[in-house]
Amino acid sequence: MPIVPIRRIAPDLSGAAWRVGLVLSRFNPEIGDGLLAGALRGLAEAGVRDECIVLATVPGALESPLVLQRLAQSGEYDALVALGAVIRGDTYHFEIVCNESAAGVSSVSLEFGIPIGNGILTCDTDAQAQARMDQKGYEAARTAIEVTNLLQAIDSDG
Predict the structure, then answer these.
(1) Distance CA 139, CA 44 (A)
(2) Which residue has the higher pLDDT, 45 or 1?
(3) Residue 122 forms beta bridges with which residues?
């Protein structure tokens, strides 16, 4: 039996052709600003033009999936990015918000087949969130671009 070489799809971080929607939670605004700065830096490095980026803000992380869903329904975006921060408090509310926001983001991505970079931080302290905000925003944006390119490569291989 002949050996067939493995076809590998190389990571592609070029975003010049993509339209990206960002959904930013206004809860924990200082952290949100840092997440947004990182995401915008990541998109700029990928070549996404400013006029191809739309930013929508929501009160908190639980509202993010609904707005992501509406953006996905519009068909106007190639990739989406969710940004926000949930900081542990003294009640079980932290777990609810973390779990439900993550499930909602994943659900929208799977329902519409659109990549969503999940940049919703879930941290025990403000200090942890501050230490991670720029990098997490950056990574979420870059992940959305990379997966958008991967899906296109898979579809074009058809």
Answers:
(1) 13
(2) 45
(3) 86
Q: Which of 13, 93, 110, 127 is catalytic?
A: 93
Which residue do the tokens 């899906």 mark? 151
Whether this prediction's pTM lies above 0.90 is answered by: yes
Token pair recorded at residue 148? 């958008």
Choose among 126, 128, 108: nearest CA to 117.
108
* Catalytic residue flag (residue 101): no
Please provide the average confidence, as pLDDT, over all residues in the chain. Answer: 96
Q: Is the pLDDT of residue 137 over 90?
A: yes
Which option is the CATH number for 20-157: 2.30.170.40, 3.40.50.12780, 3.40.50.1970, 3.40.50.960? 3.40.50.960
Going by C-alpha positions, the residue among 78, 133, 153 that lies closest to residue 109 is 78
